[in-house]
User: Which sequence fits this backbone?
């Protein structure tokens, strides 16, 4: 059984992002919060920050319920719940489609043959304990995009690659199908 609960809300502020592709963006309004996610007998603290300007952002309840569904999906696959990559901070950015698809800004992904993208997960391997998700407006697909990108986060944090013979993108795509049921 999967249980989640919200711990507390921290702050709202405006800042210039420390995340390299968005460092020039001093217009972001951010809300920080945290919750505890329980998977099996293990509890995981999630400190996250949602940043945007004038775009609808995922609610805390959406993040929590999506995490709960990810855990249910992983449990149905028999995945373990051992944290191996303590990604203690998750930054979620809701930015314009044009900005997200600016290959100069997000140069890491410019050579991967991607068409137009609506979401992006960055494990930020050069920084310990932090990961980022970029989302953009995509109408009815917003919740599915959040689910897809959030599943990458949990896949990395709980090292589900040890349980899965396919890559994390296939896990995220399979979770999308499960999520959409």
Assistant:
């Amino acid at each position: 059984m999967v249980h989640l609960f919200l711990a507390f809300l921290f702050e709202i502020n405006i800042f210039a992002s420390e995340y390299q592709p968005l460092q020039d963006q001093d217009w972001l309004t951010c809300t920080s919060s945290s919750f505890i996610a329980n998977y099996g007998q293990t509890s995981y603290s999630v400190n996250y920050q949602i940043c945007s300007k004038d775009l609808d952002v995922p609610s805390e309840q959406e993040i929590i319920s999506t995490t709960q569904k990810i855990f249910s999906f992983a449990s149905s696959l028999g995945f373990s719940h051992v944290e191996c990559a303590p990604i203690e901070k998750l930054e979620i950015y809701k930015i314009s489609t044009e900005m997200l698809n600016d290959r100069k800004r997000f140069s890491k992904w410019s050579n991967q043959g991607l068409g137009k993208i609506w979401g992006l997960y960055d494990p930020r391997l050069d920084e310990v304990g932090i990961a980022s998700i970029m989302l953009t407006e995509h109408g009815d697909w917003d919740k599915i995009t959040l689910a897809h990108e959030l599943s990458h986060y949990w896949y990395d944090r709980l090292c589900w690659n040890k349980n899965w013979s396919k890559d994390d993108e296939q896990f995220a795509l399979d979770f999308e199908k499960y999520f959409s049921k």
Summary: The first strand starts at residue 2 and ends at 15.
